[in-house]
């Protein structure tokens, strides 16, 4: 009598089990992600608010192809949410001097800063930056004229600010955006015009999404 071979049946049952297990795991994952998404939609966290409260410039110098200087920027950050937020200011920012033409400079922050914020709180921070613009390019004549007159207009863009929202047991939610502080008049009064300070009491800044929204676990 020929022995019975049950191998194909066993293999078929095994494959069916793994397919069902995979389907169950995928379904659980989808359900969990849906619950998390609904929870964050319900909480609807808003971007932190930024206000530039001070801007001082030292060692400012213009040449035909370069702009140099050190900058101390005062920022007030506001968390308008019921949940905690963590704001990370990265090291590379952009300063723009403007007149008839734009002249952009990469400003390097001395160190990356992380600001931890409880719900409904404000925090003030100082950001020290330095420009050593080694790229050879033409500095517009209007900048020399404005500097000679004693007032130079700046725009400051803080690139790639990361905010992490945290709420209880839920995985954190990260968001990247740029902070734009526009139309900042800086007055240079010293005889050599190498130091300057912001005119007025400060300016509100606005945020622009940089790379969309991403979620990450704690």
Automatic annotation (TrEMBL):
<dbReference type="GO" id="GO:0016020">
    <property type="term" value="C:membrane"/>
</dbReference>
<keyword id="KW-0472">Membrane</keyword>
<feature type="transmembrane region" description="Helical">
    <location>
        <begin position="21"/>
        <end position="43"/>
    </location>
</feature>
<keyword id="KW-0812">Transmembrane</keyword>
<dbReference type="InterPro" id="IPR044839">
    <property type="entry name" value="NDR1-like"/>
</dbReference>
<keyword id="KW-1133">Transmembrane helix</keyword>
<dbReference type="GO" id="GO:0098542">
    <property type="term" value="P:defense response to other organism"/>
</dbReference>
<protein>
    <recommendedName>
        <fullName>Late embryogenesis abundant protein LEA-2 subgroup domain-containing protein</fullName>
    </recommendedName>
</protein>
């Amino acid at each position: 009598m020929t022995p019975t071979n049950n191998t194909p049946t066993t293999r078929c049952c095994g494959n069916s089990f793994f397919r069902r297990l995979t389907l169950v795991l995928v379904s659980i994952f989808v359900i969990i992600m849906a619950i998390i998404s609904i929870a964050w939609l319900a909480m609807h966290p808003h971007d932190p608010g930024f206000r530039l409260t001070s801007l001082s410039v030292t060692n400012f110098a213009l040449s035909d192809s370069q702009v140099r200087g050190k900058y101390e920027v005062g920022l007030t950050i506001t968390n308008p949410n019921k949940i905690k937020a963590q704001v990370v200011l990265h090291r590379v920012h952009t300063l723009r001097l403007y007149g008839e033409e734009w002249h952009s400079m990469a400003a390097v922050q001395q160190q990356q800063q992380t600001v931890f914020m409880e719900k409904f709180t404000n925090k003030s921070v100082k950001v020290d930056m330095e420009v050593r613009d080694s790229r050879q390019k033409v500095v517009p004549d209007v900048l020399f004229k404005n500097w000679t007159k004693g007032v130079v207009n700046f725009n400051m863009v803080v690139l790639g600010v990361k905010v992490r929202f945290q709420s209880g047991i839920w995985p954190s939610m990260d968001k990247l955006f740029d902070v734009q502080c526009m139309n900042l008049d800086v007055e240079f009064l010293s005889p050599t015009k190498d130091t300057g300070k912001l005119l007025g009491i400060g300016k509100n800044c606005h945020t622009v999404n940089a790379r969309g929204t991403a979620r990450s676990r704690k």
